[in-house]
Amino acid sequence: MTSREQILTSIRTALGRTEGQAATPLPPPMLRVPLMDPKALVETFVQNFEKLAGKSIVVGAASDVVPALVQIVQGKRVVASNAPYLETCGVRAMPGIQTGFTDPSAWREACVSADVGITRVDYALAQTGTFVMLASAQEARLASLLPLIHVAVIPRSRIVANLDTLFGILPAPAEQTSSMVFITGPSRTADIEQILVRGVHGPGEVYAVIVEQD
Amino acid sequence: MKERVSLFVTCIVDQVVPQVGIAMTEVLERLGYGVDFPAAQTCCGQPAFNSGYREEAAAVATHFLNVFRDAEYIVVPSGSCTSMITHHFEDLFKNDSKLLEETHRLASRVWEFSKFLLEVAKVDDLGARFDGLVTYHDGCHALREMKIKGGPRRLLSKVQGLTLREMEPAEECCGFGGTFCVKFPEVSGGMGRTKVESIRKTEAGTVVSIDPSCLMQIQGVIDRERLPIRTMHLAEILASR
Amino acid sequence: MAGAPTESFQKTLDDPRLQLAIYSATGRLVNHRAGSIRGDLLPEYQDLRTRAHEIKRHTIEHLDQYLEQFERNVVAHGGKVVFCRDAQEVADFVLGLAKERQAHLIVKSKSMTTEEIDFNERLEHHKLEAVETDLGEYILQLAHQRPYHIVAPALHMTRYDVADVFTKKLGVEKEVEPENQAKIARSVLREKFLRADIGVTGANFLVADSGAVVVVENEGNARLTSSAPRIHIAIAGIEKMIPRAQDLAVYLSLLGRSATGQPLSVYTSFLSGPKRQGDMDGPEEFYVILLDNGRTKLLVDPEKRESLFCIRCGACLNHCPVYRKIGGHNYPWIYSGPIGAIITPQFHGVTKHPWLPFASSLCGACAEVCPVKIDIPKVLLKLRAEVTEAKAREGQSGMERFAFRAFAWMMTHPKIYLPFASIGKKFLPVLPRIGPLAKWTSQRELPKAASQSFHNWWASNRGEGKQA
After folding, report:
1. Nearest CA of chain A to the CA of C133: how many Å?
2. Is C59 part of a structural domain of the chain?
3. Looking at chain C, which terminus has fewer C-beta neighbours within 10 angstroms, N or C?
4. Alpha-carbon gap, residue C60 to C308, rounded angstroms
5. Do B115 and B129 sit in the same domain of this protein?
6. CB-hemisphere CA count at 13 Å for C28?
7. What ipTM describes this predicted complex?
8. Which domain holds residue C386?
9. What's the domain count of chain B?
10. In angstroms, what separates the C-alpha of B27 from chain C's closest C-alpha?
11. Between β-strands A97-98 and A78-80, what pairing exists: parallel, antiparallel or unpaired?
């Protein structure tokens, strides 16, 4: 018998089950979806994000994003993902921004040496101040991970109440991506004497630029 | 004349702190209850059960069932003994449906003392008087298995002259744990000392609990440290005039 | 108690610095948790616990089915599943793969399961370097120590201990500020992440309907471990399974709060398979190792089976008055605290460390805070009965069984017990301080002697013919 067969057989014997025996049905998932209006969603997100030492900037239109970013990227090496929304906002055209990569090694090198990574997010969770990012050809993983500063551009319509709401909208993430990540604030640890330190392996500073009229 | 209540004083009260049983008797008689004490009573079997000797515990539990078969209300001055009877007797009689049924019928007639006063006698003011600063220790079985927390405090709030100051942290184990206290004395002692330190910080002169075993552990540590604090059972406070 | 590491307990109890470190670190986690589950912030907390328990019960009771569903979905997304019976099979697989792919450097994120199987040691033996990347685990790896706590592995070390380790093992100048110590680790490990051939993570959850592994962390090292190297291997116990992605709403609401008081940990990765068409980064190969290592033994008993529901939050450790006195290194296995006390005897047999289920006052604080409602005291009580039964079978019961037989006989023969107790008490002051008496008096004074039993008082004051 293979290890697989042995393990499955041990399990069935222990549980008194036979191969192929159906399970009794599971009750539907417990999802509590609070109703929140758009203004409340933005306010709640900002409040919770800032509790995590996140820095938020709320702008009116997509065209207001670039001016908001000027101070943050000044004098720094910046990579931006290939997200179409960043194109719309004009971020990808900012002087000095490295973007448009199609070659994985060049992309990786750029992320390694960058100080700032700019991305869009797929969703944001208001009640926890969380970014939800799905890896894709337009949105690679490393921009929000390697550089010490991460800037997330968030269309207001992408802010939802909480995790439960997200799983209601996205019940099967694996169908869409090999990697869905929830990012809640800057990287941190309290491993040494329980003292909080930020920016251990992931970014130490995170910005959320929320676009109200997206 | 109200109904009759039967006392199960517990082996510790019987042998070590009989004054708790005496106080309980006085309080119940003052309320108009006819109090009786089935003299064949001994123990609930918890020491054997907690040490993994289920057969031996079952023998003691069966004796308990026999002694209290005809009792209407059984009142117990201990959270841990009450919870042994109401929560764990059924673990002992899993293979005996007759005894199991008796156990379930019994469970509804067994009352920890403070619960009896509040929920059956429906009184919270016993006309008691006790001058001084007091702190209250929540025994773990009472707190977590029987969910007893506010009741004793309500009773204490009606005692004239008594000021209650809560200890911080409030819900930590005193370290008795039945045979644990002699199987792991160094750990039990450490836990007891931490508990006494929390008590000392309240500056209370008296620690009150509904569990005599906790009080025995706490008083033992207090006396070793020669602190001027005494332990008293809730019944003794409520019987004070 | 016989067999318990009493001297080691005493050493830990006598170390005021260590006592303070354990008490304050766990105390902080206790307070943070309490703050995050307050009635106004999370009114559904008890409902969530009930649901979390029920979903795990369902999953564990149909585990074979969910493992098969999980496997199908991993494969459908381009990954591979490897069932391993024990530590050796895991090592053999990883070594074999490393050889085939000419891999020399492995980076690892925090995984108690890999500690359980001595993963790093087995690989080291074959000259394959596996570098821990979680800050606490990295420090411990350099110091050759075991984790002290499920969630806060280096809880017992001071910044000076860390400074020493870094100076000795990394050759850096002495640095005692935690923020700078983290910077040193970041820079050393960044180079490892980028050079590594294989990334090994654990998994907090395995999701059957998605073929996904979920990895929860705060530092970002697990994301790097699973994204930078070209091969990602996730190693998980078979009991980590949950049925649906949507069930994560329940578990993720409970995990961060129970562990550290965070509504969500900084990073939660939901990983299903290698990178997809067009992705610019992510692993090219994705493996999930499903480990038994004795878990199927824990499935057998319906009353103890819930020991497998654990989501490794560490709350039981933080609230345990025994753990908070003796610390993590005094438990015989890698899993410490109340959860360690119930799974260790089930994995290793009750007679290996017969004292372990008794090292508890049964206060129930653990059960009260367990997010999946494992009734730890109930399992401990059952294990205690199993220990005494095993000892009886092996003819090793000794004095204790005799003492409890005598106890039971006395307590069922009051006419003998009561006079015996009356007389016996009189001798208490002169009895030699041996056995249980000595154990009691080693830590505290004996109670004052009562002049008469309650039985005698009743007979004299309320008995037949006496007035109230």
Report:
1. 9
2. yes
3. C
4. 8
5. no
6. 16
7. 0.98
8. 1-36+311-396
9. 2
10. 12
11. parallel
Cβ separation C384–B52 shorter than 8 A:
yes
pLDDT tens digits, one per residue of C251-261: 999 999 999 99
Q: Is the pLDDT of residue B1 over 90?
A: no
* Per-residue pLDDT tens over the stretch C347-370: 999 999 999 999 999 999 999 999
Same structural domain for residues B17 and B68?
yes
Chain C residue whose CA is closest to A171: C246
Residue of A nearest to C177 (CA): A192
Residues from chain C that touch B45, judged by Cβ atoms under 8 A, are 408, 411
Contacts of C189 in chain A (CB under 8 A): 201
C321–B173 CB contact, under 8 Å = yes
Architecture of domain A34-213: 3-Layer(aba) Sandwich (3.40)
Per-residue three-class SS string for chain A = CCHHHHHHHHHHHHHCCCCCCCCCCCCCCCCCCCCCCHHHHHHHHHHHHHHCCCEEEEEEEHHHHHHHHHHHHCCCCEEECCCHHHHHCCHHHCCCEECCCCCHHHHHHHHHHCCEEEEECCEEECCCCEEEEECCCCCCCHHHCCCCEEEEEEEHHHEECCHHHHHHHCCCHHHCCCEEEEECCCCEECCCCCCCEECCCCCCEEEEEEEEEC
Please list every residue in chain A whose beta carbon sits closer than 8 Å to the beta carbon of residue C185. Answer: 200
Where residue A30 falls among pLDDT bands split at 50, 70, 90? Answer: confident
If asked whether residues C3 and C92 sit together in one domain, one would say no
Whether residues B62 and B168 share a domain: the answer is: no
Q: Which residues of C377-390 are buried (b: 16+ CB within 10 A; e: fewer)?
A: bbbbbbbbbbbbbb
Query: CB distance A194–C179 less than 8 Å?
Result: no
Pick B13 or C397 by higher pLDDT: B13
B133 Cα to chain C: minimum distance (Å): 23
Q: What pLDDT shows up at residue A17?
A: 95
Nearest C-alpha of chain C: how many angstroms from B128? 19
CB-based contact, C245 to chain A, within 8 Å? yes
Encoded tokens for B68: 């209290």
Q: Are residues B19 and B95 in the same domain?
A: yes
Q: In terms of Cα–Cα distance, which of C411, C403, C408, C418 is closest to B14?
A: C418
Shared domain for C262 and C318, answered yes or no, is no
**Residue C432 binned pLDDT confidence (cut-offs 50, 70, 90):** confident
Nearest CA in chain C to A199: C219
pLDDT at C33: 98
- Number of other CB atoms surrounding residue C54 within 10 Å: 17
The verdict on a CB contact (< 8 Å) between B184 and C384 is no
A34 at the C interface (CB within 8 A)? no
Domain tally, chain C: 3
Is B110 in the same domain as B132? no
Q: Which residues of A touch C83 (CB under 8 A)?
A: 2-4, 7-8
Co-location of B205 and B129 in the same domain: yes
Per-chain mean pLDDT for chain C: 95
CATH number at residue B55: 3.40.50
Q: Is residue C79 domain-shared with residue C21, that is, in the same domain? A: no
* Partner chains of C (3+ C-beta pairs under 8 Å): A, B
Global pTM value? 0.96
Backbone angles phi, psi at A47, to 5 degrees: -60, -50
Please indicate whether, in this complex, the C-beta atoms of A187 and C135 are within 8 angstroms of each other: no
Looking at the fold, whether C49 and C144 belong to one and the same domain comes out as: yes
Q: Are residues C323 and C445 in the same domain?
A: no
B175 and B114, same domain (yes or no): no
Q: Which two tokens stand for residue B19?
A: 């004054």
DSSP-based helix, strand, coil % in chain B, nearest 5: 50, 15, 35
Those of residues 74-113 in C touching chain A at CB distance below 8 A are 77, 83-85, 89
pLDDT for C468: 59
Clarify whether residues B110 and B133 are in a common domain: no
